Amino acid sequence: xxxxxxxxxxxxxxxxxxxxxxxxxxxxxxxxxxxxxxxxxxxxxxxxxxxxxxxxxxxxxxxxxxxxxxxxxxxxxxxxxxxxxxxxxxxxxxxxxxxxxxxxxxxxxxxxxxxxxxxxxxxxxxxxxxxxxxxxxxxxxxxxxxxxxxxxxxxxxxxxxxxxxxxxxxxxxxxxxxxxxxxxxxxxxxxxxxxxxxxxxxxxxxxxxxxxxxxxxxxxxxxxxxxxxxxxxxxxxxxxxxxxxxxxxxxxxxxxxxxxxxxxxxxxxxxxxxxxxxxxxxxxxxxxxxxxxxxxxxxxxxxxxxxxxxxxxxxxxxxxxxxxxxxxxxxxxxxxxxxxxxxxxxxxxxxxxxxxxxxxxxxxxxxxxxxxxxxxxxxxxxxxxxxxxxxxxxxxxxxxxxxxxxxxxxxxxxxxxxxxxxxxxxxxxxxxxxxxxxxxxx
Length: 442
Description:
There is one protein chain. The chain is of the alpha/beta class. The protein folds into 2 domains: 15-299, UDP-N-acetylmuramoyl-L-alanine:D-glutamate ligase (3-Layer(aba) Sandwich); 308-437, Mur ligase, C-terminal domain (Protein-Tyrosine Phosphatase, Chain A), CATH 3.90.190.20. The protein contains 15 helices and 17 strands. The chain has helices at residues 24-34, 44-52, 71-84, 113-127, 134-148, 185-188, 192-199, 218-227, 268-282, 291-299, 324-336, 355-362, 382-389, 404-414, 427-437; strands at residues 61-66, 89-92, 104-106, 109-110, 153-157, 174-177, 208-211, 230-233, 238-242, 246-251, 255-260, 308-310, 316-318, 343-347, 368-372, 398-402, 420-424. It has an 8-stranded mixed β-sheet with strand order 4-3-2-5-1-6-7-8, sandwiched between helices. Strands 12-13-17-14-15-16 form a 6-stranded mixed β-sheet, sandwiched between helices. A 3-stranded antiparallel β-sheet has the order 9-10-11, with helices on one face. Helix 4 packs across helix 5. The longest helix is centred in the N-terminal third of the chain and has 15 residues, at 113-127. Mean pLDDT is 93; it is low at 1-16.
């Protein structure tokens, strides 16, 4: 087992003294307007900057995680189990819910503003004439911080797709692709086959890979075979089964029985966990994890905004579902969670989502809809969502209270015991609800 390195303190260097900004808020505001578009897939620009910074041959191992849904959960499980097994870890995820710092973690803790600002200054000085997106700045900052913090292994969530995502400038030592479905059609294609090939772009020759989608398009295995990737598939190379309070997992050479469910009410987390266990099985010669670490990591798994239940007289259920598949999973989980009263649903979404499909998936479980505006240029206006929802929902069941806060204020005085309040449609919708419900986060 690789020994855990002593934490390092990153000192400001001469480059840091040339920083464009001092505060993280100013850096992020500037980055949002720097590039001509928020999303600009391609590796040439970000790879050139990474090469100038000496980041393309990292001193740490890399696990890359792509997929339509389940990426954040899988990354969190992977990092937690590795850390509990004694490794010094880096974790990179996106987007964040409350604070940008959530995106970059070392040994389970979000890094502070100073570390991120110092990394941004180094990136800014290295990029020279090259324009970078907000996401590319964040990805390079994470890699720079992990290098300087001397982590043993970094778990990286792919932001969009895989093949052309900034994370893919590094060759993953092992890769995990979670569920595959339709999302980001403007960039990835309009069918599962096209999207699967984009996700498979994180595979590397002679490096192991896992897919935790129970029914992936055939093209993903065909692509893996064509480049010499050892791809292991759920239902073929490994399996899991569930009962009321626990679940079991097995591959050809390994079995785990009576595992704690990573979530009592979110069944898809066991599918994510199954893929995580198979990835550990495949990298066990280099990174051994203990059964105790697996069990404690799964038992203590928590991730805000993923079918998160906040108990109350009228409970709140927060879920970042923002595509058809995740909306379907949310509806299934809600059906299994008994309620004797009205289901109120607060929803706000970004412009580039298939709004009608999401409304249709949730229409059988929602009684009253509350359409809200979100504070983002990328968000769809509530009035336009109101126009779209009538195709799937009785207009008498739809209301507009302008914002998450206004809606929650209204429901605080009108929702009754035995009912429930669901907040969904976007990370931004859930963020606004968390800020409302937890004043300490503001």
